[in-house]
Design a protein that fits this description.
This protein is about 45% helix and about 15% strand. It is of the alpha/beta class.
Length: about 300
């Protein structure tokens, strides 16, 4: 650990202890289903649903008027823009597709910077030629790691973000696949504009992590806490078969330890939004939201 890392981790530990006593309010968010392009209407709808964080509405970084309108409208409602997603394969084996995807990721980071989003998340990608996030034997290789470091540096160096962070998520079958490999990646990328997007469900890739999800969550936050910019909320159920099969489900229908998740989140020294994702209907999002609110209430946590 470098001196700078030691100082940062020490400061995080101190702030984490203070946060534990204070129980920082959590910023919860998720998709909305209002058919409108008006930022003011969209921001009010987030508040009506009890959300204080949002996915960025449709915009382009060079549309200065629209970007300012979004930032002003959401700021007026105290709703932060949590993410500008860039969900494409930065390691596509097709060189033309890879170059196109990289340009898109850079554009999305530019938008995140322009609108003041907490982060621009993606996954590292995959060498799988048909499924952009799919498994491949080289997805845990040194070649994959080195290419991901190069990609992250390239994206960050193009924009040089000051207001946002570029982040990638853990995946169960590609780098980073856990907190230790993510920490190794952070050190290798070596850019202040690089951070962590925490999706604990993506890191639960074995029975031991599933059975002891609370311990795994604590390990993730203990290791990566100083760099966490935003988080995803979903749940995992184990579907009994002759091999391991975890299924993403609505929060509350699975076994992920949300008491541990919310507790760790509330202890962070910064507000890292918790964003519901991958559900099918407004009713499912409402169910997941109400479950998270219920668990938070049981452990004495509040929402921004």
């Amino acid at each position: 650990m470098t001196r700078r890392e030691f100082a940062g981790v020490a400061a995080f530990g101190s702030a984490r202890m203070m946060g534990a006593a204070a129980g920082r309010p959590i910023r919860l968010g998720g998709p909305i289903f209002l058919k409108s392009e008006d930022p003011a209407e969209l921001a009010r709808e987030h508040r009506r649903l009890g959300y204080s964080a949002a996915y960025c509405p449709q915009a382009k970084a060079d549309d200065t008027a629209r970007v300012r309108e979004i930032e002003k409208a959401f700021g007026a409602e105290n709703v932060v823009i949590a993410e500008v997603g860039a969900w494409v394969n930065m390691l596509d084996p097709d060189t033309e597709k890879r170059a196109k995807n990289m340009r898109y990721v850079i554009e999305r980071l530019a938008l995140a910077e322009a609108v003041g989003a907490r982060c621009c998340p993606d996954i590292a990608g995959s060498f799988n030629p048909t499924v952009w996030y799919g498994p491949h034997p080289k997805n845990l290789s040194q070649e994959f790691f080195d290419a991901t470091v190069e990609n992250c540096r390239h994206v960050i160096d193009e924009i040089k973000p000051k207001r946002t962070k570029f982040t990638i998520e853990m995946m169960g079958w590609s780098i980073p696949d856990g907190p230790d490999s993510y920490l190794k990646l952070i050190r290798a990328v070596d850019r202040s504009g690089f951070a962590v997007h925490m999706d604990v469900c993506n890191g639960i890739n074995s029975p031991s992590k599933f059975y002891r999800s609370g311990e795994f969550i604590a390990e993730c936050f203990r290791t990566l806490g100083p760099w966490i910019a935003s988080c995803h909320a979903k749940d995992l159920a184990w579907i009994p078969e002759l091999n391991v099969h975890f299924l993403e489900v609505v929060p509350g229908r699975g076994e992920v330890d949300y008491r541990a998740y919310l507790t760790e989140l509330s202890r962070l020294p910064v507000e890292a939004p918790l964003m519901l994702e991958h559900l099918k209907t407004a009713e499912e999002y409402d169910e997941g939201k109400r479950y998270i609110q219920k668990v938070a209430g049981e452990i004495g946590l509040t929402f921004a």
